[in-house]
């Protein structure tokens, strides 16, 4: 029998992949895998992998396809992914997308459901410049929230090292230079869905759920969510 659904969240830095991934995760009961969070965790832990990628992360450069693909392959093979998962930040290049397709086939998953959180670059810059992150649970908060510590675990919120203006510009350039190829790749495979990600978190979340409710990718144990009530998702 095929496993559950794998959802790929595409979108530039600051598009809301982490926030929407977290909401989808609690709604669908499957984990979110954020490659950025995993790599930052490696950096904080002082592991060999962390030491290898730290300077790339701080400079806003991508780590090598082979390396990140291996990290994802190991993570997806874990038991909590049996019923599927939400990928935030992977794939980011066409070779990574091809790798993911092969990996999902090997692990007996259907091809992914892809949701592109589309948003204007100026809005991304504004969001990234003001956001802070909890280093314990990885949730992000916009400056307008006025919070200085995480409401969930009380950890002091920090600015990400790569959320500095010059690095933000580089990350956006890198994202833009890869985006059209990866979008075309998923359009060609028929798994591409685009959501306007400008607007309130709840509104965007409803649009994401609306896409999922129309998708039936043939998996046996994936029940597309039903838009019953805002409470379920808020
Ligand atoms: P994110 O938190 O998704 O913005 O990722 C932060 C950083 O982690 C990126 O700027 C890259 O340096 C690295 N990274 C995360 N995911 C990938 C990926 N799929 N491919 C290459 N580098 C990645």
Oligomer: single chain
Kindly report the name of the CATH homologous superfamily of the domain at 5-120 and 176-215.
P-loop containing nucleotide triphosphate hydrolases
- Name the shape in a single word: globular
Averaged pLDDT, please? 89
Separate helix tally: 9
Order of helices and strands: EHEHHHEHEHEEHEHH
DSSP strand tally: 7
Structural class: alpha/beta
- What fraction of the residues are assigned to beta strands by DSSP? 5-15%
Which fold name corresponds to the CATH topology of the domain at 5-120 and 176-215? Rossmann fold
Q: What is the CATH domain class of the domain at 5-120 and 176-215? A: Alpha Beta
State the low-pLDDT regions, or none. Answer: 226-234
What is the CA-atom radius of gyration, in angstroms? Answer: 17 Å
The CA-CA distance between the termini, in Å, is 32 Å
Bound molecules: adenosine monophosphate
Report on the biggest sheet: 5 strands, parallel
- Helix proportion: 40-55%
Q: From the 3D coordinates, which CATH architecture of the domain at 5-120 and 176-215 would you assign?
A: 3-Layer(aba) Sandwich
Strand line-up of the largest beta sheet: 2-3-1-4-7
């Amino acid at each position: 029998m095929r496993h559950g659904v794998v959802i790929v969240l595409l979108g530039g830095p600051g598009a809301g992949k982490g926030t929407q991934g977290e909401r989808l995760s609690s709604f669908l009961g499957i984990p979110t895998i954020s490659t950025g969070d995993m790599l930052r965790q490696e950096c904080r832990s002082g592991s060999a992998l962390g030491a290898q990628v730290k300077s790339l992360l701080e400079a806003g450069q991508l780590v090598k396809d082979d390396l990140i693909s291996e990290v994802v392959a190991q993570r997806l093979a874990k038991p909590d992914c049996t019923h599927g998962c939400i990928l935030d930040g992977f794939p980011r290049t066409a070779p990574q997308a091809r790798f993911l397709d092969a990996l999902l086939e090997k692990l007996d998953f259907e091809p992914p459901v892809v949701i592109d959180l589309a948003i204007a670059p100026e809005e991304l810059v504004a969001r990234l410049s003001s956001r802070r992150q909890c280093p314990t649970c990885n949730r992000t908060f916009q400056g307008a929230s006025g919070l200085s510590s995480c409401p969930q675990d009380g950890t002091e919120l920090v600015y990400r090292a790569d959320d500095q203006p010059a690095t933000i510009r580089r990350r956006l350039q890198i994202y833009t230079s890869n985006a059209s190829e990866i979008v075309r790749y998923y359009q060609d495979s028929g798994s591409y869905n685009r959501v306007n990600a400008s607007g309130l978190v709840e509104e965007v979340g409803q649009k994401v759920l609306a896409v999922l409710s129309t998708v039936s990718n043939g998996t046996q144990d994936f029940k597309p969510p039903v838009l019953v009530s805002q409470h379920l998702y808020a």
